[in-house]
Write a structure and sequence with these properties.
mainly alpha; Histone, subunit A; 2 domains; two-stranded antiparallel sheet; 2 strands; 66% helix
């Protein structure tokens, strides 16, 4: 699992936006979609529980900030290592570095299983392709 981030500019070379320019960014451009956040929240609660709009918006802002926080740390690591792509290990390392080490081991297991599943799927796809070629 890799996230291409394109050319990385050192922080000293990133553009400085004025308050007016920042105000032009739409809220939905900065945050995860509220419907996705609400769906995840509902899955972890009993069916009879309702979630207030303000609660959804607060969680939306928090998770969006959390993702930005972790991704920024991963980007810094990539800059130091002169790489242009953030990968799963970078994100896990960032979480540990930022004090979320309780999640590291579980995420390492998840990432390994994800890669194993993707590898098996790729092998199966290649096998299916070979069958088509032989026919």
């Amino acid at each position: 699992m890799s996230v291409p981030i394109g050319p990385i500019e050192p922080l000293s070379q990133t553009p400085n936006f004025t308050e007016t320019e920042l105000g032009q960014f739409k809220e939905q451009d900065r945050f995860l979609p509220i419907a996705n956040v609400a769906r995840i929240m509902k899955r972890s609660l009993p069916d009879n529980v309702k979630i207030a709009k303000e609660a959804k918006e607060s969680v939306q802002e928090c998770v969006s900030e959390f993702i930005s926080f972790i991704t920024s740390e991963a980007q810094d690591r990539c800059l130091l290592e002169k790489r242009k792509t953030i990968n799963g290990e970078d994100l896990i390392h960032s979480m540990s570095a930022l004090g979320f080490e309780n999640y590291s081991q579980v995420l390492k297991i998840y990432l390994a299983k994800l890669r194993q599943h993707q590898s098996q799927k790729n092998d199966q796809d290649q096998f299916d392709e070979e069958d088509l070629i032989e026919e």
